[in-house]
Write a structure and sequence with these properties.
about 150 residues, single chain, mainly alpha
Length: about 150
C-alpha cells in the first residue's frame, strides 16, 4: 500500500518526538513506565491473592490498605531509576546512535582534554543544544572562526 511507504507519515510519526524538548520526552516516558509499574503491581497482588484462595476484591482491599504506601514508595524509587536510564537512551538518540557512549568512554589524552576545557572556558556557558550534530561545537570541539 502506498501509505506505508509514504515519507510524510514517517515524518509525522517522528516529528512529534523531534519537536518536543528531550526533558519532556524523558518525563513523559518515565510517567508512562511508572503507570505501567503500578498497574503490574495491582495485577501481581490480585494473582497472589488468587493463589492464596482470596477473592480479587479482598486482595484489592488489602492492597489499598497497608500495602499502598509501600507500593507508592517502591514506585517512586523505580521512577528515580528510570529517569537516568531513559535520559541516556534519549540523549543517545539525539546525538546519534552510539555517539553518547563514544563521548563517555573514549580515551582522551591530557592535551586534548586541556584544549577542550580551555575552549569551554573561553566560550562561556553553553546551551545543551549547542552540542547537537551540525552545530559548530559538535564536530571538533572548537568554535568556527577561532
Amino acid at each position: 500500500m502506498a501509505v506505508a511507504n509514504n515519507p510524510s507519515t514517517e515524518t509525522i510519526a517522528q516529528g512529534d518526538r523531534r519537536r518536543s524538548r528531550i526533558v519532556y520526552v524523558i518525563a513523559y516516558k518515565a510517567l508512562l513506565y511508572l503507570i505501567l509499574l503500578l498497574v503490574l503491581s495491582v495485577v501481581e497482588e490480585v494473582i497472589v491473592g488468587l493463589v492464596h484462595r482470596r477473592t480479587s476484591a479482598a486482595s484489592l482491599a488489602e492492597f489499598g490498605g497497608y500495602k499502598l504506601p509501600q507500593t507508592l514508595v517502591t514506585s517512586l524509587i523505580m521512577l528515580l531509576i528510570l529517569i537516568p536510564y531513559l535520559a541516556s537512551r534519549e540523549l543517545n538518540v539525539a546525538l546519534g546512535e552510539g555517539r553518547l557512549w563514544t563521548l563517555l568512554f573514549e580515551h582522551r589524552d591530557g592535551r586534548q582534554s586541556a584544549g577542550l576545557a580551555a575552549t569551554a572556558r573561553k566560550s562561556g556557558p553553553t546551551n545543551p543544544s549547542d552540542h547537537l550534530p551540525g552545530n559548530r561545537f559538535f564536530d571538533d570541539g572548537a568554535p568556527e572562526g577561532r
